[in-house]
Amino acid sequence: MGSITTTTEQKLSWQDIVARKREEGRAAIPKNWLLPSSILDSLSLPLDKNPNNLIALDIPRKSGILTDHELDITENYTVEALLGKLASGEFTSVDVTTAFCKRAAIAQQLTFCLTETFFDEAIGRAKSLDERRAKGEKLGPLHGLPISIKDGFQIKGQEASIGYVSFLGKKSTANSPLVDILLSLGAVLYVKTNIPQTLMTADSDNNIFGRALNPHNTALNAGGSSGGEGALVAFRGSPLGVGTDVAGSVRIPALCCGTYGFKPTSSRIPYGGQQIPSLAGWKPITASAGPLTNDVDALEIFTKAVLDTTPALLDSTAIDVPWRRLGPNTKSKLRIGVMSEDRVYPLQPPIKRALAEAANKLEAAGHDLVYLTPAEGQVSDANEVACEIFGLHTATSKGFIDASGEPPVPSVAAQIGPGNAGHYNFVPKLDGLDFLHKYALLTVKRQELCENWRTIWLEKKLDAVLAPAAQNTAVPHDNFGWPPFTAFLNLLDYPACVIPFGKASKELDPEPWKVQAGQGAPDYDPELMDGAPCSLQIFTSKMRDEECLQVTKVIDECLKRA
């Protein structure tokens, strides 16, 4: 935390400190961007306890805050198309940035997806970028594009409180390396996005900024820990957002909110220089930074642009491997592994249906599918190891909470573990072992899993694997629980994309569903989850990020065909 300037809070309760911060946030939204009372009165309140579909309600249009041109900018273009309009001069960066600032302000009033806003600075930078373009200067491939970024990334002059009251009042004195890279590429940063207290739950809820809500259904969670990004991107308040992922924190918001998300191999996208929620230097499972977007091509646009800058020059924790140009995909037939349902982590009916439908469409398109058994996939085994590694050190996060006197939020207090906690099959008893020997034993078990998957790739000759992104869609708040199908890929350090595919349906899946003893999953409520986005996950082996993105585009295109 060396890049943070500290100030001392005296004689203020944590509630007083939060009240002041919230008032600052409200004041940062221009008055003419505030939603009229008629809009708010039309909603079912409180929002987090009532299923409001904010997207279907078309509130940005009804509010009158955005012009027709601004609605067009935010609703009708992919990232590639926006960049093309900016490059041609048909759209100015001021126009695009203002449009997304307005829409982000509306999203904040409805979903509580933001932590820091700096609209005036962003529009000022956009004006400067337009002037430079008019002079023939082009900063880079993201010139003029607004990009949102998760709260943990540090931006000079802004706070990075990551959901801890004890971190409030501290301004960053330097940018995270990725922030400097995005600025060098011509991006416009305009907001930071909401996260959970501790950054280690799938519910983006904290005592400062409140709970990020899912714009598809405000009674369902937006995911975590990059939940603010998921909500903002789904509401089209950002064309491209940056999150981080140590157990699914990019992919869970993507699957909950129906967006695309990419978790690269760790340390390819620079992660350094962030505010951290735990002991400095302790990262037995290394987190990744990655994009959330509304179109699959934008995942590659972001990743390629960042990697082409040679991030290791600015961040010593980044791997110095440039973007690998694979050339056009000439394979007419992919060999795709398909993950089978794990006994410990059964799939909710909508997810089981989506996975089967996707497999059928891919097979009908001529791709070769290889079904992997639960014993081959070892999902439950990997989650035993991941949970025990994550649990080796938790005292620092508790200390940050206790420092202000604030309570833990419900999802943090719950401390939910794997479905077979207490009845492990893969991890031996750790009782009586000291820290060093626990860590060594878990590292050995982790390597066994990596070796198993190395054999699978080699012997089955797979191009990629199709898997659930989670057992479920978005679920009622504080009920997501342990994320088995994302955490196991962080343990393996594999790149993975989440893509939206279909929706939950009370007509197609009408029966309520509960897990059995010894299993872990949220309950399925067909009425409440009706219409929630379903998603799938595509992954490749470590450092095959370019192949992962390439195969994902092929699969996404195939699944979109009627």
Please describe the topology of this protein.
Blueprint: E1 4-5, H1 14-27, H2 37-41, H3 59-63, H4 68-75, H5 79-88, H6 93-111, E2 114-117, H7 119-134, E3 146-150, E4 171-172, H8 177-184, E5 188-193, E6 205-206, E7 210-211, H9 227-234, E8 240-245, H10 251-257, E9 260-263, E10 288-293, H11 296-307, E11 335-339, H12 349-364, E12 368-372, H13 374-377, H14 379-390, H15 395-402, H16 410-414, H17 435-460, E13 464-468, H18 484-492, E14 496-503, E15 533-539, H19 545-560
Parallel strand pairs: 3-5, 3-8, 11-12, 11-13
Antiparallel strand pairs: 1-4, 2-5, 6-7, 8-10, 9-10, 9-14, 13-15, 14-15
Strand-pairing-aware structural class: alpha/beta
Could you say how many structural domains there are in total? Answer: 2
Strand content: 5-15%
Count the DSSP helices.
19
The average pLDDT value, as a whole number, equals 96
Going across the biggest sheet, name each strand in turn. Answer: 2-5-3-8-10-9-14-15-13-11-12
In helices, the fraction of residues equals 25-40%
Largest sheet: 11 strands, mixed
The CATH architecture classification of the largest domain is Alpha-Beta Complex
- Low-pLDDT runs: 1-9
Please state the CA-atom Rg, rounded to the nearest Å: 22 Å
Distance from N terminus to C terminus (CA atoms, Å) equals 51 Å
Q: CATH H-level name of the largest domain... which superfamily? A: Amidase signature (AS) domain
CATH-defined fold name of the largest domain? Amidase signature (AS) enzymes
CATH class of the largest domain: Alpha Beta
How does this structure look, described?
By secondary structure, this protein is of the alpha/beta class. The chain has 2 domains: 28-313, Amidase signature (AS) enzymes; 335-560, Amidase signature (AS) domain (Amidase signature (AS) enzymes), CATH 3.90.1300. Helices cover 37% and strands 12% of the residues. The protein has helices spanning 14-27, 37-41, 59-63, 68-75, 79-88, 93-111, 119-134, 177-184, 227-234, 251-257, 296-307, 349-364, 374-377, 379-390, 395-402, 410-414, 435-460, 484-492, 545-560, and strands spanning 4-5, 114-117, 146-150, 171-172, 188-193, 205-206, 210-211, 240-245, 260-263, 288-293, 335-339, 368-372, 464-468, 496-503, 533-539. It has an 11-stranded mixed sheet with strand order 2-5-3-8-10-9-14-15-13-11-12, sandwiched between helices. A two-stranded antiparallel sheet has the order 1-4. A two-stranded antiparallel sheet has the order 6-7. The longest helix has 26 residues, at 435-460. The radius of gyration is 22 Å and the shape is globular. The N and C termini lie far apart (51 Å). The relative contact order is 0.12. Residues 1-9 have low confidence and may be disordered. It is an enzyme of class 3 (hydrolase). Keywords: Hydrolase. Its EC number is 3.5.1.4.
